[in-house]
Amino acid sequence: MGKLLVSNLGYPRIGFDRQWKKCLESFWQGSLGQEQFLKDMKDLRIANLQKQKDLGVDLIPVNDFTFYDHVLDMAAMFNVVPKRYQHTTGPVSLATYFAMARGTQENVACEMTKWFNTNYHYIVPEYEQGVELKLTHNKPLEAFLEAKQLLGINGKPVIIGPLSFAKFSKGNYGTLSEYVHKLLPLYIQTLQELSAEGCDWVQMDEPFLVVNITNEDMELLKHAYQEFKTAAPKLKIILQTYFDSLENYEQIIQLPVAGIGLDFVHGYKENLKSLETFKFPEDKILGLGLINGRNIWRCDLMEKYKLIQKIFQFVPAERIWIQPSCSLLTTPVSATGEKKLAPFLRNSIAYSDEKLVELKHLAEACNNGLDSVTEFFNEAAAALKDLEDERRKIKINFSLENLKSIGIERSESFESRFEKQRASLKLPLLPTTTIGSFPQTTQVRSARNKFKRGALSSEEYEKFIKEQIEKWVRIQEEIGIDVLVHGEFERNDMVEYFGEKLVGFAFTSNGWVQSYGSRCVKPPIIYGDVSFKEPMTVKETVYCQSLTSKPVKGILTGPVTILNWSFVRDDVPRNEVSYQIALALRDEVLALEAAGINLVQVDEPAVREGLPLKKIDWSDYLDWAVKSFRLATCKVKPETQIHTHMCYCEFQDIIQSILDLDADVISIETSRSHGEMISAFEKFKYSKGIGLGVYDIHSPRIPSKEEMSDVLTRGLKVVDTKLFWVNPDCGLKTRTEDQTIAALKNMVEAAKEVRERL
Ligand code: GLN
Ligand code: ZN
Hints:
The protein is an alpha/beta fold. The chain contains 27 helices and 23 strands. An 8-stranded parallel sheet has the order 1-12-11-10-9-8-6-2. A 6-stranded parallel sheet has the order 17-19-20-21-22-23. The protein has a 3-stranded mixed sheet with strand order 13-16-18. Strand 19 (599-603), helix 23 and strand 20 (641-646) form a beta-alpha-beta unit. The radius of gyration is 26 Å and the shape is globular. It starts with a strand and ends with a helix. The relative contact order is 0.09. The mean pLDDT is 95. Zinc ion binds at residues 435, 605, 645, 647, 730-731.
């Protein structure tokens, strides 16, 4: 029997110590010159490759590395650069590249949106008529040559396939087919150049193939991949899918490519069924996405081994690559940095490197027999058993059954609550507020770090936090904001902070993953049942309220967001975990209310990203997501105003569920998707309080009063004045104090001006 190989689909770019982030940020701030920036980035890129080589990966991905985002790389490579950046010819400069990613004072950034149902965000390619598509430089080729020359690695360039790239794009490109046809020559040139340099395999990612495939898509795919084959006959393409099961399996496997990559974690059942039903072509490699690339748990190796054995019935070993279920982009780098986790957890986690080690052992078990890996397999099994024992210790008495008796309804309808809230809160029309956080300055972060290290006592730290709250209460009052927030200075992260105070969570020291651009997050681990231990936000919120006569809004992170932004246990269904979190948050909401806080915002920015990729699975998810939110919030008095906040998402198709949350007010992003949201509201009359974010907080650019009053005026055309709120589109933690104050001043001025015109 031939040998089974190990392949990887993409390696985290951020580096073990988040060198990537630091390098980028120093470059943006100007403390790192371009030459040094390029050199540091190269070192990291090479180190990432070397690591995979050392771990024994047979097919190492290249071109997965980027300076910001891999979709943006493709756009820059194909000259999909909007005219406003005034890029003329040749390779896109770093300045233009980062302007597209982040915006500049002169130009807004390109749209950013979530990468399927993950917490990674990509930059949306923005095609403008009249822009000539061409190959500005062949990045996959550069990556391939670099790996070959410096490390002797025969890398497998990762490229987003034409259908998916087209679907990622927006703009006036005509029909999808026209756009794909414009792109094809650029793909062909890329592939031919790769082939000429001796590149053997290319991984073409077509993640949209798990979402749905129309007849037109199918025709385009056939055409595109046939063209590739004709143009570069020696080059082998593996068509890679992930995040769910492949649609149109029977037809897709007939495409003229040399391999098909399938997710056997997230689309396990359906993909397996397809494999059992249709004969897998003899001329193709099967990329078997075996290990969960989106989670941090060590896997049950024996189970995976048996799965491979089962697959052997359909495809022989020499035509199988075992690989993670998707790129390791959303998994931390290496668990070796985890020195503080309890041993039972430390032993049961696997980050990217450990996942590659698991794959290596699975390959060995198949190639050389189980005996060759006994020790490793036994150790993993023992670790998972320990984890189970620990879970038992914090088990709560909860079942989906007792959920029914708890209730998820507010005591009064929105209309009658709304009147009561208006009477008691006494807010002006178009009330102004912010989303919760104020700048996490170096000073704030360093105080927290000192406190964590023990260099600052808890009294000193508390005093510091109080000073920040007071400082920002005064700033907000001075600017003239109507509903104040305390600023979230005590929070390192909106999920970790809550997890630290709830039972069932654990925290890593180095479990960082990229969220967007240089921003990384460190998701907590939910390893067992979740329950409430003590109030989490009452102290700071109440202190803030004591300083002002204006109403203060308490800010919590919602159950679905906590779930979606954590690494969740995989031994119980996700909805169960979500309900457990909701019940714990319900205690917190009631504690705030009891302490005299009349507005409570429960942030749910991650609801949308948790949507299953296939529409058919949506209603089930939305049902438990909505129930979770309501479970957390419904018990308050009618006078208490429940807010929620969501960012970066298309709402059109889930607007009913958003209304079903039954929040009194929702604040959402509208500024960065350039008015698309507003037109959505034209079609759908939103009947509860709503704040359409009036400026993009992700850009350092300061919006003028005029442009914000424009946004407000447009918004007021589609939303009832009485329901209308004015706020930025997200929290302000990533901005500087000066930027924040300047922008908020303009925002309040804009609100005043529009209010006067009413
Ligand atoms: N309340 C949070 C903040 O202001 C919300 C962040 C978010 O939506 N991602 O930072
Ligand atoms: Zn937000």
